[in-house]
Amino acid sequence: MAIDLSLPGEVQALVDRTRSFIRDHVVPLEDAHDGDIAAAGGDKFRVELQQAARDAGVFAPHAPVEYGGHGLGMSDRAPVFEEAGYSLFGPTALNIAAPDEGNVHMLAHIANPEQKAQYLAPLAHGDVRSAFAMTEPAPGAGSDPSALTTRAVRAEGGWRINGVKYFITGADGAGFFIIMARTSGEPGDRGGATMFLAPAGTPGIRVGRHLDTLDRSMVGGHCEVFFEDLLVPESAVLGEVDRGFEYAQVRLGPARMTHVMRWLGAARRGHDVAVAQVARREGFGSKLGDLGMIQKMVADNEIDIAATRALLTRACWELDRGESAANATSIAKTYAAEAIFRIVDRSMQMCGGLGVSGDLPLARLSREVRPFRIYDGPSEVHRWAIAKRTVGAAKRALRDSE
After folding, report:
1. Is 22 within 8 Å of 83 (Cβ atoms)?
2. Residues 58 and 94 sit within 8 Å (Cβ to Cβ)
3. Are 36 and 217 in contact (CB under 8 A)?
4. Concatenated DSSP letters of 374-397
5. How many CB atoms neighbour CB 114 within 10 A?
6. 355-385: per-residue pLDDT in tens?
């Protein structure tokens, strides 16, 4: 039986509208500000972009319909998010940038009705931004979340939280925080974490310095955040106590795939720019695009784009079926993070001096996509997890055959 990869009509229409909106409205704004969201105006600029997206009928493709979104599943999100990612500012415009997109997904699945009204509704509508506070300075949680050191203890009226987080995307100006804190066990234990919701203005939350990173397109930066005797009520618990690591998987697998979608769009833009350049540029007696070495780079880019889409399609299919998709998302994320960087890097190489200049968008695209090999799990950690699952399955098969 043939596999049907066609899109529903309403999804294809949304893809088409998104493509037009991004290329006609958003790309020129990105070019004018060199992809730097703070230079463009930060939150004020975000609000203006999002209103334009609403007017174009492309806002919040991922959010539940009851909260003003289009309610797309993972497979249908992929082509829409890819078109949005064609501009570095596109995800912000559609309200699908990290971490808000992942937080909308998680709150829709885990939050109770009161929490949805207080946190999910304004986030989905673009009235506020959010931050997901899990990563900590060493020796705390990073690639190994079980190293979590931020602690929440029961106190009169709720919980008292103390700890330090860093690399918290969007923290500066966020309307609320989702805080991962240890409620039982010790650092290194696999369980014992709980998620808490807290408005940004709550006493005991302090946003520190912005960490200076390569990327410049995310509103609110990547910041240190300090929780100092933060008192939250029992109603602040997201889900159930001690199930935070389990709930994190609801967010992390899909969020890794939406990163792939967005940055694949950015890589495609780089490839398109390079192909247009070599198709018209003369050198060595012909168009550069007619030279064998250039053609190899063009072909390798096409292969990496197609392979990334194929792995993404498989992972999204598993997620839409309600599966954990742990292996599929690790494979897709690892391949895509490296392929996307290769695509942009080859595109720079094809364009020579212009490729590393500000006259083309390639240098800033390279700046933005390089961190993906680290964000949401370094490639090395995903490779370790993939191998561990594979070897573990082989060991179980051997035991069963004895």
Report:
1. yes
2. yes
3. yes
4. TTTS-HHHHHHHHHHHHHHHHHHH
5. 9
6. 999 999 999 999 999 999 999 999 999 999 9
